[in-house]
## 1
Amino acid sequence: MSEASEFSVQLPLFSGPFRLLADLILDQRIDVCDVAVATITERFLREGGEAAARWSLEEATWFLAVCAVLLDLKVGRLLPRPLPDTEENLLGAQSPDLLYARSLELAAFRRAAENLAVRMAEAATLVPRTIGMPAEFAHVYPDVMERVTADELRRAAVDLLAPAPVVELSHVAPIRASVSDALRALEERLWATPRARFRDLVDGCIEKIEVVVRFLAILELYREGKVDLTQASLFGDIEVSWHGSTQPSTEGSVEGSGDGGISVSERAMQGRAEGAGDG
């Protein structure tokens, strides 16, 4: 680049030809971060156009390449760089005891890995037998189908494919007590006697299922808010208090039903009698 066409810069740190500045920066005699690239760019846009018009292709190419290198250097210096990996950073600034414990765990895992590698290598040498017994040793194993006849196979198939036997339930008496019947009976009883004990409400029940049904009916009345339940002591009598606002309907009730006015207990006894007669 001739002196007449030389592009010069004026900076607080350096004043002179741009070529000399580029050489000093590339030789690391001047820190690229101390050079205001923006100032050089503005001067080039303002005054360098006249000098660049007289440059040859080689001079123009050199100028562009050097500018690109200087920009790359400065960007690399300005961007944050990772800190060097020191021993403390690698260890994570942990306490010595914790680091020692982790080292022991690492040693245990290393030993386990070595043991597994040995076992896997030994297992790789085991090859399963894929062919049958040689003909000269066939007589050693007895024929399991030698004593099986066609008649035995037929009987086994009949037993296997036969339908399952029907279980006879005629001797079992059906449960004739229902929660709906017990609800109607309890409502009528509590409407007449608003306060009663549970033992009085199950008076007349013969089977346990009748007592269970009466208890479920009381729980249903309590859920509907028609009765209150109190118990003074553990395993004591359960007091049932009626709070229903309307008189229970007698339509379809136990006492006024179409069964001749029989109670749940009587109906259960009748069911047992019918079941006994069927058996």
## 2
Amino acid sequence: MTMDVVPPAPDRGPVPAGSARSAAAAVDGATTSLVEMRDIKVTFGGVHAVDGVTIELNAGEVVGIVGGNGAGKSTLMKVLSGARQPDAGQVAIEGRPVDIRNPRDAKALGIETIYQNLALADNMDAPANVFLGRELTTATGTLDDSAMEDATRKVMTRLNPKFKRFKAPVMFLSGGQRQSVATARAVHFNARILIMDEPTAALGPAETAQVRDLIRQLKSEGIGIFLISHDIHDVFELSDRISVMYHGRIVGTVKQADVTTDEVLAMIILGKRPEEVTQKDLAELHG
């Protein structure tokens, strides 16, 4: 079994965050990854939370990022989201190195993060949450509630046509509906790259199915998704490729169709690539 290897991209010099949308998506006729994170390192004191990680994401692809607690997956994604500066390494968007200093830089590059807690204002309705911090106003300076509701209805028609509770405070929505609101907020502002952190955590089967449909819709629109999840079933259901982290490093990146759940669990628990896993290892996993 072969592992995907991210080739180094040619160095064209860093570009400001806001100018990446004009970067060419192809270089010399070759397809360029939507995201490349190369040799990323993050240390906390003497602890290597992320230790030389290279990972890539293509448009319209879901890459599952899995690993045990403390493996470094959330810290790695904080680098991409602008919440944490790396100690070393380079991020490239569509082949162009970028400098992501903070979440605002990430948003300017079309990178949005949907956290496990969704960061919604529970006492506000869906349109108010979609435009939270980026409200539309009228010529007189008052909130343009009608325009915000119209825009929210349009984006929700794409993402979750069954969503109807536009006037209800989000505290009264189901888990799946709340996930739709958080995703609509990201997509409305032209996200091309989504980081989804445990999107089905604490959801029942019906709501989990709804969120899976939402992710498939995003993928069909060409959005690239990094999916952080402890749910191996979600990872196999949704991911095109799976990157496994172990003690701050990437054990390997494999195509979902080429591996079994046992092989991925061995990567997570033992830190071994599938071709290194023995029958004894598999027996111990189930022991």
## 3
Amino acid sequence: MEFSSEITAHSPKRGRTLVIMAKAPRPGRVKTRLAQSLPVEAVTELYRCLLDDTMALARSLGTVEVAIMCPASDVEELTRLTRGVVTVVPQKGEGLAAGLTSVFAHFAASGQQRVVAFNSDSPHLPPSVLTSAFGALTSHDLAVGPTNDGGYYLVGAKTAYPALFEGDGMGTKSALEALLARARGLRLSIAYTDTFYDIDVQGDLTRLAAELRLAPAKAPQTAAWLKRWGLAVAQLRTAAGDL
């Protein structure tokens, strides 16, 4: 992968920032669709495990700065939970669209950074996917990681585009389509990373459980949670007809 000409041997992380879109793991505020089938305390614990493993994934890249973007009300709690190992930045405004707008306004304002933002429930991503997103930004305006359900788990850019995340559709099956339409309206060149899945509903969790049974080291905190809640997750799988 090519590095920015501004990166020096004394500053290996300069020029690339990886931002995790996160919330504080509070009951009733995270993974609400899963909480319809599992105890809310268990779902809250799951989110914290996903976030811990996602941070470990981000930090494993080594040659990027890692930060968290979150609602302003969550900064103190996330700073405490992350023990100061990553920068925690408050977003301006409410909701995911405001959060993504804040990411690029904050980190890409100079035009000298390649910035990639991705979901906090993504420990199952191969590190190569994140690396490829940064690489794509050497020759494209935008990098996008589609999800199987019509959304996206990742977006990267070198410049802030205030209108890119405007409008409806965030968190819906039309989110990716809406993003791409706005990007084309701005005449941005787009590169795609591999398609993956989010951990939002029963089928996502059972899919992750099957993946981590084979490779628990990929997300050890989440794998340990799945062991503790294995019976409940198995019942979800049976109810969903995934056996």
## 4
Amino acid sequence: MKVARSIAEVEKRPRAVAIGMFDGVHPGHRRVLQAVLDSDLAPTVITFDPHPRLVLGYGVELLATLERRLELFEEAGVEETLVLEFGHELQQLEPEEFVGRILRAMGTQVVVAGDDFRFGHRRRGDLALLEANGLSVVTIDQVDGVSSTRIRDYLHAGDIAGAAAMLGRPAELDGIVVVGDERGGTLGFPTANLAVDPPLLVPAFGIYAGAARGGSAAISIGTNPHYGGLERRIEAHLLDFSGDLYGQRLVVELWQRLRDERAFESEADLVAQIALDVEQARAAERPI
């Protein structure tokens, strides 16, 4: 998939375009993408970075990084994506200007969107404005019960199965492996310490089963209470893997929440529990 960072990088040709954040790329989003793919025009996505809510000073917890969204677009079959930097200039762009300077400039003939789609300065643009400016519009119904808000609620509660059912795939952690306390190695269970971008949602503290780099993983999210930790850590023990992951990006699927994190009577008890966690992680099945 070709990824452009400015309209100048996009060739003008007949296009069907989907516009939005598509955070999580859940089934509702994929329904929009599929409609673009089903057209006879070049299937194209316009998305934004950073999230507009962050720029406008509101909080938001993302379900996927930009890099992961782009990967999911490509997996869906999208040919091109234009990533627009959402800053003051774009924020102030009137809907008619967006149509002329962005959509027409890239050859857009059809826009695919939900019926509540809004765009442009003060969200004044809507589907009727697109049609009034000569563009065809394909309206897509929402998938009943599916929303990014509900997925976030499931993850906050540690309900990995519920989140996966609504996402249509396992929830994920996506970050860079950094140096941690290196305590896992001394216990016989070396871990990859994952640093994630602050806007990315991290599920409820606990011990999880999942997968990374094609194999099973046991994942700890929390403060390591046995050692009196205060800072949140995300540590993944990759079963049957040995190697140096420092500085590399790592995407970890979450399959099942195994238990709460807790302190133990002794380090021997901790090690015994980790061994049980590892066996449960090995036996866990992908939720969807």
